[in-house]
Specification:
By secondary structure, this protein is of the alpha/beta class. The chain is built from ten helices and eleven strands. Helix 3 crosses helix 4. Bound molecules: adenosine-5'-triphosphate (ATP) and magnesium ion (MG). The site of adenosine-5'-triphosphate has 13 residues, from helix 1.
Length: 269
């Protein structure tokens, strides 16, 4: 058994001869949490998608890339190997939860179907487990939510449904790529609390991607800062926030401080 749950070494992603991600090294402990921050286009999602084996068409990992999850080299997996890892051992949630759900099927049935496939539960047991998971996600009236269609739920509720689906196979690692970015500040904080709570209760490890260093600081033990496809800084989020070493990180921290002040003012006008 390898020491780290996830160990990524020299990750590169290219589109033809353009290098989009270069030489990324990162690691996540069992039950640990890593934040990835950086401006739009810095390579955060391509890094996550590499770990999930779902790179967009036209992009690929370079030959020196090494991604080892719980002792398994993911680069060597075939289709069936991936299906035993993605969704089961590594769950994922993305921005825009609405687009990942079928609009014409109740959210409860969608979760129950995933449970039946992933855990082999029968119809009734899957329904009961789905309601239980909705309750654990902090959804009030979980039995009522079970019967609702995606359009009947708010963005925050939909994201909780997606998190329930992502963790339904009891994964060891959850990758949340901008999962709270589209939510308003209060709902974002609630969903972050939920993720922190899940970590505490289940020992789930977390990779959390955000534009916002302060968001990462709330939930993660370690952060890497990406810019133009490379990691420019890494450390404990509080240290990085307090004393950023790289010019770019300083800009991120300053921008957040300014934005934070405006948000504060806005709340009191
Ligand atoms: N299929 C593709 N073909 C070519 N270039 C791509 C492709 N997908 C992404 N890129 C480029 O790779 C770079 C990194 O993209 P990525 O989606 O990882 O950024 P990101 O840090 O997640 O940004 P955001 O914060 O906007 O989500 C960007 O410049 C993007 O334009
Ligand atoms: Mg992205």
């Amino acid at each position: 058994m390898s020491e780290k749950l996830l160990q990524v070494r020299n990750l590169t992603v290219h589109a033809d001869d353009v290098l989009l991600v270069r030489g990324v090294d990162l690691a996540v402990d069992r039950g640990g949490s890593l934040g990835i921050v950086g401006e739009s286009g810095s390579g955060k999602s391509l890094t996550c998608r590499s770990v999930l084996g779902i790179l967009p068409q036209g992009t690929a990992n370079g030959p020196g890339t090494e991604i080892v999850f719980d002792g398994t080299d993911l680069g060597g997996l075939d289709r069936s190997g991936w299906s035993a890892v993605r969704g089961s051992r590594i769950g994922a949630v993305f921005q825009d939860p609405g687009s990942y759900l079928n609009p014409s099927i109740t959210v409860g049935r969608q979760l129950a179907e995933v449970l039946r496939v992933r855990t082999g539960l029968g119809r009734r047991a899957a329904r009961e487990r789905a309601v239980e998971l909705f309750a654990q996600m902090g959804l009030r009236d979980p039995a009522g939510v079970h019967r609702q269609y995606p359009f009947e739920l708010s963005g925050g509720m939909l994201q909780r449904v997606l998190i329930a689906i992502a963790i339904s196979g009891d994964p060891d690692l959850l990758i949340a790529d901008e999962a709270t970015t589209a939510l308003d500040v209060t709902v974002q904080a609630e969903v972050l609390d939920l993720l922190a709570d899940l970590r505490g209760r289940t020992g789930l490890a977390l990779v959390l991607v955000s534009h916002d260093l302060a968001v990462v600081a709330q939930v993660c033990d370690e952060v890497v800062v990406m810019r133009e496809g490379v990691i420019v800084e890494r450390g404990r989020p509080d240290d990085v926030l307090r004393d950023p070493q790289h010019d770019y990180t300083r800009l991120l921290v300053d921008a957040h401080a300014r934005y934070g002040v405006e948000r504060f003012r806005g709340a009191h006008v």
